[in-house]
Amino acid sequence: MEIECLNYTQDDFTHRFAGGDGQTLSFYQNLTYDEKSIKKVMDRPSHPHTGKLADIMAEGMAPYGLSDKQEDNLRRLREGARVIVGGQQAGLFMGPSMIMHKMLTLLVLVEEVKKNYNYQAVPVFWIAGEDHDFEEVNHTHIYDRTHRRRRKISYKPNLTVPMSLGFYRYDQSAMKDTLDRIVEECGDSGYLKEKKSEIETMIEQNEYWTELFHALVHDVFADAGLLIFNSHDEAVRKLEAPMFKKMIENHEAIDAAFRQGQREFIEAHDLSPTIDTETNVHLFTGSRTTRTLLDQQDGSYLADKGTLSKDALLEYLEQDPASFSNNVVTRPLMQEMLFNTLIFTGGGAEVKYWGELHKVFEVMDIDMPIVLKRMEIIHEDMRLNKLLDKYGIKVSENLATDSETKKQNLIESATDTTFFDEVDSIADHLDTDYSRLKDKEGREAHRDLIEANLKVHKKQLSYLKRRYQLEVKRTLRKELNDLEEISERLMPGGSLQERIYHPWMFPIYLEVGRLAYTTQLTIIKGI
Fold this sequence. Notes:
It is built from 22 helices and 16 strands. By secondary structure, the chain is an alpha/beta fold. The strands form 5 sheets. The chain has a 5-stranded parallel sheet with strand order 6-3-2-13-14. The chain has a 3-stranded mixed sheet with strand order 1-16-15. The longest helix is centred in the last third of the chain and has 29 residues, at 447-475. The radius of gyration is 29 Å and the shape is elongated.
């Protein structure tokens, strides 16, 4: 096994952010991944509710069986240890792979902070069970090695889930059928052969979508000490009720700060907005049934229960905090009001929207953590490694273009261009000969017949050219398929492999000590 890191084209903002550009870092309270910033964040006071939060998390994780490392990390959390946190929606059977790469990033950073700064931070993965974007998580993709193409596998693709995913009960039979299809398409992976019956048991033992996701993540990462936070947990919502109340009472200031801060951020970096929202309250209600974006109009609040006064809305919150949840603007605030965070790590878009929210943190008098871009990882097995060497292609942002260029060069080198010239010459002669045939005196009544016959012959000549091109490609079928496989497996549709494919297509890689945090693209080869 070999690990290689390489520069992968990113936008100007990401270069500036990763490079510690002063203007860019000013949108992140001038914090970066260095000793000075780490000491500054660690010196902050801990939230008074930290012990209660740790107890809630321990209770939520206990049914899955706590490992010794998880017990140790829960103890540290109770004592006020700072966390390194990242999160994601609960993808179908943990897919796509980037979800696991977020978790790996947390573990890598925990190890580095311990080694370089002598501090034992706690890794926390935030399951966004409050989200209701079912179409984003109800499917996954695998690479069909037999037919050498990408395939989409869905769980009930036509199903609409209006409530938060944390409250959605899945169909166990349909989930098992989906598992069968994924395992079948992923091939004879030793991991899957051993785990399939265990995963079926997980499907039977759990009831809700996020519970199953939790069980799967726990199975992989428990021994590494990863703590798993279910944001839709009703005990969590009770703990958050005063925080929701504070957000409601200050929603006008939050909204104004967001709009101003977003303008400043996008103008400074010449970007389009990452956050697109029309609400002015930035919370949802109705998480149990129909998740509805809360909005204020003419002094009243439009919620899932209809039009409410502010007092009625606060009473609703007091009676049923589990029905409330955050939108993209207030979720980072809630994270920092809950956790004593050292580092937050997210995808490129997440990093940008934290920058857009810098004024929101200011107006709410909340400190930001150190914000880092998560690691991006590509798995390059022995077959892909051999194909890349064979065709002289390198992994880069130009991989798809390079592969297509190689295909066109192969086709051109195997094509006899004089063949097309000769066919075109025949067509030209046909035009001349048929003109004489048609224009001869006395044949006026037969011109339509002659012209129709000419069209038949020219159509056959066009068909001949197309068939010739097809035959050329057939002689190159293996080479063209190889090049298509390179592109489709490493950068399907121009996206990084990890954003599309299910993690079971790749080895479950947990040798955290062999990875180092980087904003470069990490390539794991030879497994």
